[in-house]
Amino acid sequence: MENPAQGTIKVLKGNSAAAQAVLLCKPDVVAAYPITPQSPVVEELSRFIANGLLQAEFVEVEGEHSAMSVLIGASSSGGRVFSATSSNGLAYMFEAYIYAATLRLPMVMVNVCRELAAPNTVLCSQQDILTMRDAGWIQIHAESCQEILDTIIMAYKLSEDPDILLPVNVCYDGHYLSHLSSRVEIPAQADVAAFLPPRELAECRLDPEKPMMQGIFLGGKPFTEHRHRHCMAMSHAKQKIDSIDREFHYAFGRKYGGLIEEYRVEDAEILLLAMGSAASTAKIVVDNKRDKGIKVGLIRIRAFRPFPLERLAQAVHGKKALGVIDRDVCFGWNAGIIFVELRAALNRLGLSIPMVNFIDGLSGGDITLEHIDRSVDLTSRAATGEPCQEVHWLALE
After folding, report:
1. pLDDT tens string 117-127
2. Domains by residue range for the chain, with CATH
């Protein structure tokens, strides 16, 4: 069997790109339970292990809660670990998911974004992972199959950094990326090994020679200090994400902007903001509008946690209006999660800018060129001071 870890160029689906990245990162333990549209990731990893390409323990569990519990034990023992899930599987994992974060355990997990039930669906939305935004994990969202591969490699470097030691979710849209085929450059194993050294066993917490407890009961000031350190590590991760992106660019020739990507932003008068695969479609609309003399740019959020407050504030400063595309809903606000968070963030910094929210692409609905074109037009109207509806459910208009 051909060794997929060699430096090559292939046409891969997003799930295959994720599996290739994990192979290159050489985890010690993989534990997962299949769920659409994530299943091909761990199916491929199991084949790599069966064919001797990956020397790792593959733990077949009875559910996602057990998968994360296995990773907690393996990471606590000093192992590099991986899992993948989607939607209801992520929800089932939640108790162990938040436990892993608050234990400050380094690990990487892929979430292939899918709508949550009910009504039942197996199609795309970012509702599942954004619902977990306060669970203490770092969240990084990819736009392309190439970025999926590259981000997983960077995620291990971030998670295992001794100044961070937090689990990282690499997120990408179900079907639109998980089952989309595109050109992917697979770096050579030696180059990845140079970029991502083995995990420092000094972090090992479970050692038979040095018995200890973890996850013990704490109250009052010690617990508060633990939470404060977690928050400080999350904040420090902002600088690390940007610096690791620069380091990756130096090593492999590809860069993604770190916390956010800015597309034709510098001279823009109005901006769109998107996350995930919809940003690719939005870039086409931006180019088309530019050809018509409309100065619009695009911000793509890569890191939703930690929230890139400072980078976003710098990017939107001086702009006349901002349109936010959400593939999710914030129940109780009748708006999107990204919109609500960004409005609060800018208000915190004293920045006042007209904002319009566009909810679209729920349960696999297409975020079309026409929808984004309409979003630009409505954002342009808001920039003139014209009274505008704040939230638009584009598929219903």
Report:
1. 999 999 999 99
2. 8-252 (3.40.50.970), 260-396 (3.40.50.920)
